[in-house]
């Protein structure tokens, strides 16, 4: 991507997001981080569990009121917008895809109504027929059968449910999508399919992604640049090639800790091919 010609779509400046402020259990989940995201790029956000990735995403989309700092989206300082303006702005332009495709879809709603949520809220359909057509087109765009629109979420596989979540996000034609670990809950074989779908959609619709993830190999594959978070701080921002070729010492340390953590989780919960995964992880660590 040619950054000299690129436009900044998101500017995060000295963002702080603290919880339980003034109480003994005060948490500095995000502690003075700054980064920009350019139109059409994928900015990967990685870091170990609890490093503040999800909180960053939620603060950007204003599910939280930031403790301090500025978020500028599409040239507008978000803190200066009133609640109604924020809702209108973000409902259309910024969407979120969640980690758990099981929990993020209402089990009592038919797929067509889930996908049409944003269409209904923003009055984007001119008639019932138009609404149905838009839903069918969206399902086809994400590789689902349009004839399945009257089914319920439990009738779909994990990968298909994540595609439903993506169709729901696309329904309002956003510019910017925050994908919070969108593939972590999926089988490895399905992960690549969903990532490839996201890449295809990005090309076709000029989408910008903030891609939050644990899986470093997938992040490298999809991201133009990567930010590494640790204990609420941004340790390093670099192109994904640079970060893998010459990671700074702290990033290496975080990666090492992440490997250790994953190995422990695999041991605790059982894993079908633990040795293969461990070997794979250790090889990647050695490469750093
Ligand atoms: N609503 C909240 N109230 C209090 N503390 C919170 C809240 N949300 C997150 N935290 C804390 O903030 C820190 C950062 O959490 P966050 O979920 O952003 O991390 P993460 O990097 O996304 O982790 P994971 O990869 O496990 O999802 C953690 O210590 C978490 O316990």
From TrEMBL:
InterPro entries: AAA+_ATPase (IPR003593), ABC_transp_ATP-bind (IPR050319), ABC_transporter-like_ATP-bd (IPR003439), ABC_transporter-like_CS (IPR017871), P-loop_NTPase (IPR027417). One of its GO terms (biological process) is transmembrane transport. It comes from the Bacteria. Its main location: membrane. Coiled coil: none annotated. It is a peripheral membrane protein. Keywords: ATP-binding, Nucleotide-binding, Peptide transport, Protein transport, Transport. It is found in: Cell membrane. PROSITE patterns: ABC_TRANSPORTER_1 (PS00211), ABC_TRANSPORTER_2 (PS50893). One of its GO terms (cellular component) is plasma membrane. GO terms for molecular function: ATP binding; ATP hydrolysis activity. Residues 10-256 form the ABC transporter domain. The keyword ATP-binding applies. Belongs to the ABC transporter superfamily. This is Oligopeptide transport ATP-binding protein OppF. It comes from Lentilactobacillus kosonis.
